[in-house]
Write a structure and sequence with these properties.
Number of strands: 0
Largest sheet: none
Oligomer: single chain
Number of helices: 4
Shape: rod-shaped
Helix content: over 70%
Length: 111
């Protein structure tokens, strides 16, 4: 009788251990899946970081180019403003009147 009680207890214990083992196996599968998902996320984050870094570098290059072009535009505008004839000067040059009277030294002074 004591042996039968012990045998039932052992069978019950082994059955409970089987259930625990199944639960642990399911947990292991779930954790393995979670680990795989985390690895994928780390890879994606690293790729995003690399892409962002490349984008930031490209933006910096474009900003430097924009500033350079802005300076070149200012120089070109200053050149045009300094050397482009205004309407009055064009009128004097195109005039059919005596050029000697209209073309004084002031006309040729660059200011």
């Amino acid at each position: 009788m004591i042996e039968q009680q012990n045998l039932r207890r052992y069978k019950s214990f082994v059955s409970a251990l089987g259930d625990v083992k199944n639960d642990v196996d399911e947990l292991h599968v779930g954790l393995s899946h979670l680990n795989s998902t985390c690895d994928t996320m780390v890879k994606n984050l690293w790729e995003s970081k690399q892409n962002s870094r490349n984008l930031i570098e490209e933006i910096a290059k474009l900003e430097a180019e924009r500033k350079k072009l802005g300076r070149e535009k200012q120089l070109a505008e200053a050149y045009v403003n300094a050397f482009q004839l205004n309407a009055e000067d064009l009128k004097i040059l195109r005039s059919t009147e005596s050029s000697a009277d209209l073309l004084s030294q002031d006309f040729f002074d660059v200011s």
